[in-house]
Design goal:
alpha+beta, Metal Transport, Frataxin, Chain A, three-stranded antiparallel β-sheet, globular
């Protein structure tokens, strides 16, 4: 899945599937935390259907892979592709 076709909703669903929980903020940013390992991801606000900034998608990929939540970039891309098609959520 090309980074330019990824929505904020796709990124949020991917993070939720990996065990991240969203934290309440004042709306300026969206904050997601994974407890083990302790990983914090901060994204700009965006509606679920809005296209995510490709740089943000790359940053999420790097954090997820570097912290061992997925094995590699291919695993990240595959999960994101499944989420985008609805396969990972049963939609």
């Amino acid at each position: 899945m090309k980074n330019s076709s990824v929505t904020y909703g796709d990124v949020e669903r991917l993070l939720a599937q990996l065990g991240f929980a969203s934290e309440d903020t004042n709306g300026r940013y969206k904050v997601f935390r994974h407890q083990s390992p302790d990983v914090l991801i901060i994204l700009p606000p965006g509606r679920a259907g809005d296209h995510a900034n490709p740089a943000n998608v790359v940053a999420v990929r790097r954090h997820v892979v570097a912290n061992g939540l997925l094995d590699d970039d291919d695993a990240f891309d595959g999960l994101l592709r499944d989420i985008g098609s609805g396969a990972a959520t049963g939609s």
